[in-house]
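Format is sequence with structure; example below:
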Amino acid sequence: MRDDLKNQLLEGEELFVRGAYPQALQRFESVLEQEPDNPYALNDAGLAYAELGQLERAVACFERALQVDPGHENAFFNLIDQLLRYNQFELAVETFVRYQEAIPDSEQKRKYERDLAREVRRQWEATLNAQPGIYLGEPTEPGEQVCKVAFVCGPHTTFIVDIEKQLARRHHVRVYHFPKSVNWLQVQEALDWADVVWFEWCDSLLVEASHRLTKRAAVVCRLHSYEVFSELPQRVNWEFIDRLVFVAPHIKQLFEQYFPRIAYHVEKIVIPNGVDINRFQFKNRNPGFNLAYVGYINHKKNPSFLLQCIYRLVQRDKRYRLYVAGIHQERRFEVYWNHMIRELDLQDHVIMEGWVEDIETWLDDKNFIISTSVHEGCPYSVLEAASCGIKPVIHYFFGADKIFPREWLFRNIDEFLEAIYSDNYDSKKYRDWIVENFNQSDQIKAIDNLVLSLNREYASSNIKPVRDNNKMENKYDNKNRVILDKYGWINVAKWKDYLLGSKFDNGFRAIISHPNVAIIYRNELLKNIVKDRAILDVGCADHAPLIEQKLRQGGWLHAELARVARRCVGVDIDEEAIAVARQFGYTILQHNVLTDPVPEELQAEHWDYMILGEVLEHIGNPVQFLQQIHEKYAELVDRLILTVPNALKALNYQAAQQHQEIVNSDHRFWFTPYTLSKVVTDAGFQVERFCFAQGLGPMNDSTKRLLEQYPALRDHIVLIAAF
């Protein structure tokens, strides 16, 4: 690299560290104008775009850097970080698989592998994601034997939701979904409560559970497809597993081929995927000219072969169209795809529809479902389309003949053309095959039989495992409920009558903490709560002269929240501070939440959280202040996060022993957990939980031990309430 370009790059990196992202980006783009394939400038530009909220451009830069230099570790990890930040779980996995061979082995790389298995797309019911351990209700169709079944799932819940719902008709079911990070206490709770625990996927969650937790129930693992091509099965403690379920016989065959020792010792069963037939409307169709492709476009899907098939088809009849419900996952294939469409003159014959949510409606006018994949497990896209009466045309991947009729399969382009041109088209036959072989009711019956069988086996064995002191222990209250989690959250449900005023006690003793809770710092806690969420940060601007200083030190809370949130908009009244913040690329509106109408920009989106960080203690009438916020924002925001200085903090006790009070001279109130909850309740909110967090600053070992033993002595109260 030329010295002048190297200097520009260094200048840009210095600006980036200072938080001046737009100015830093200008330097990186200037380098790229001279050297478009400079991987260092591409990586730096990607980081700047990410900080400015331009994900697509950020991903494009990281992808380009990796195409130029597949072993570029920073671009590799940065790309995965951004994809996970925006809940693009499958893209993150594809990225890891695609580039990982060129990336040197390291603890960081292994950590990313573990984290990928725990990250999850937020594409499923909020209550299940928000409440691991939720009980799905009394069985409505109980049999002679009713069991307790827990489902544990980390990174991907799509394939398990229907099973949980259907099995809850027969059994007591609890669902433990972990959309972000795994709470091992809750996984152990599942093992303690259930007769049978079902782990969806043979992933890192199962690996950790099999080594860390105490087995107190029969355990099932369902392995789908990708796991058989990974090292994950080798890392599982298989003594933890009572039954291994496969979705297709050829996946079982591959498992036995790649992991023969494990396969010999673990009991195995094949339960094919099931389709809810009632969800897909059947209609008789004719051969027609509309072909459907559903899913991501990546190397596994064999897109180059797909285009060649379509080209040969169109040569015979220009009326054929391929409709694609999906998006590209690999830049290399996207370039190739677009290039070949132009070169083969297929612009009018390949129609990209993007990601389609309502797939049933989208399939309505289609005549064929096409799959050219080099490998599949038990593909739902084919099953669902065939349920609608659409003719499947499937490339003969390994094992395809074990799950589909031979007449659905093709080995080469000539056989593909023959399948499309043929008058042999029978919608009812396609539907009947799914009903006979992939009916969800048969899948649920097989799983129900498995649950009953395992419960009998496990109960008859009279196993009473002894706890391993090196493994995780739960803490329980007198009703045998878990009371301790990572942050020491306290649920205020028992305070409800007192907070609402329907009960009174002049000496009410409120439990506000439990001992031995690891210290969590306020900023880190808030970042963990708002990660990947849409948030309003009220009163965020800070004093203008301090913003740049705090940015350099990494101590400005708004910048930290903006870095992890899906969308973060600040709201403040300090015009000077807002101007400074905007110079560094942060979105802060000059707006008085009490007196000004709600800006259209805020009305255009529904917000997960409104944050009031260290604000309420400055307000003369906090109840009235919060009431006005509740009235104006109740339809726009789900929850309020409040942080305030803790009246009970250790520093106050130390000062009192010196006959002193140490206080911010602008503060009007001190709060305890109960008094804060009372104020928030009076304002119309429903308090859900609170915990204690520590502020920044040095801490000696004795202070650390004190604050771990007595969390109520920490600096801050963090409270969450529903609007």
